[in-house]
Amino acid sequence: MRFFIGVFSCSIIILSFVGCKKESSLTKNNKDSVVSSVTNKVTKDSSIIKSKTTEVFSFQTELCDNKGYFNPQKYTVEQLGDTYKLWYHLGGVSFNTPSVFNVNSLSEVRKNREKILAKLDKDFEEKKKLYNQLKIVDNTYWQKIKEQRYNALHQEYEKEKLQMVAYSDPSVLLNSKFSGKCKNFASALNSTDDAIISEWRKVREKVSKSNADPERIMNDFETHLKEPNWKDYAIIDLITFGWGNCANAQIERPAQDEKMNKEFENLFIKIDSECDEP
Fold first, then answer.
1. Are 204 and 221 in contact (CB under 8 A)?
2. Long-range contacts from 59-63, C-beta under 8 angstroms, 24+ separation
3. Partner of 83 for a Cys bridge, out of 136, 154, 167, 272, CB 3.0 to 4.6 A?
4. pLDDT tens-place string over residues 236-270
5. How many whole angstroms from its chain centre is CA 182?
6. What percent of the chain stands above pLDDT 70?
7. Which DSSP letter does residue 56 get?
8. Chain centre to alpha carbon of residue 3
9. Residue 41: CB partners within 8 Å, gap ≥ 6?
10. In the prediction, which pLDDT does 180 show?
C-alpha cells in the first residue's frame, strides 16, 4: 500500500513537471506570434510610407511638358519652383534698354536719357529683389549659380548704364571697370577725329567679315564718313558694336550648358516628359 501511494505521488510530480514545460512552450509560441504580427505590421506600414515619399513638380521646357518626381524630405515645391526659375528663366537678357543702330535711335536715347536711366534703376531694384527672394534648393551647385547670376546682374546693370550715358558723353567709358579690354574704343571716342575714324574703320571691317554683304558695310562707312554728322555714325558703331560687345563679353555669367541641365534633372528621382516634334 505504501508502495502504491509512493508511485502515485511520483507520477503526479512528473505530470506536473511536464505540464509546466508545455505551458512555458505555449507562452513562448504566443510571444513569437505577437512579435511576428508586429513585424509584419511594421513592414506593411513601411511600404505604405515608402509609397508616399515622392511628390510631383510640373515644369515646361522648350518642347516638353515635364513631371519630375522628387523626395519631399529633401526639397519643397517652392524650392524647386525657384530653382527652375533660376535655371530656365533668369539666364537671358536682364534689361530692356533701347538699342541704338541708327541716328534716329541715337537722338531718342540722348533726348530721353534721364527717363531711360530712371527705368533702368527701377528695373535693377526689382530684379535684385527677385533674386533675394529666391528660395532655391540648398545644395552647393545651385547656391553658387544663384550667386554668379546675382553678380552678373550687377555687372550688366553697370554696363547698360554706362552705355546709355556714353551716347551723350563718351568720357564715362574711360575709367569704368570695363576699361581694360575695351580701352581702345573708349580712348578713340575721347581722342582726335583721326583716332575716331581709324578705330571706326576697324569696327566696320570686322562687322563686314561676318556679314552676307561685306561690300555694302564698307560702302556705308565711306558714305557716312562724308556726311556732316559723321561723328554720330562713328559713335553708334564704336559704342554699340565696339565697346558694347566688348563689355558684354566681360560679364561673368555662369554657362547655360548641359551640365546645368543635368544638375537640374538630378534633383528628381525620375522625370516623365511629353514632347512635341522639333
1. yes
2. 59/84, 59/88, 61/88, 63/275, 63/276, 63/277, 63/278
3. 136
4. 999 999 999 999 999 999 999 999 999 999 999 99
5. 28
6. 81
7. E
8. 100
9. none
10. 87
Residues in the chain: 278
> Distance between CA 139 and CA 142 in Å, rounded?
6
Q: Give the chain's end-to-end CA distance (angstroms, integer).
A: 109
Name the DSSP letter for residue 169: -
The two beta strands, 270-275 and 64-70, are antiparallel
**Identity at 175, one-letter amino acid code:** N
Confidence of residue 142 (pLDDT cuts 50, 70, 90): very high
Q: Which residues of 219-231 are buried (b: 16+ CB within 10 A; e: fewer)?
A: eebeebeeeeebb
- The contacts of residue 7 (CB under 8 Å, 6+ apart) are none
Q: Are 133 and 81 in contact (CB under 8 A)?
A: no
Q: How many helices (H) and strands (E) does the chain have?
A: 11, 3
Instruction: Look over the chain and give the mean of its residue pLDDT values, rounded to a whole number.
Output: 85
Report in angstroms the alpha-carbon separations of 256 from 75, 109, 121, 187, 261: 23, 32, 26, 33, 8
Backbone angles phi, psi at 66, to 5 degrees: -120, 145
Instruction: Identify each DSSP E strand in 39-119 by its residue range.
Output: 55-60, 64-70
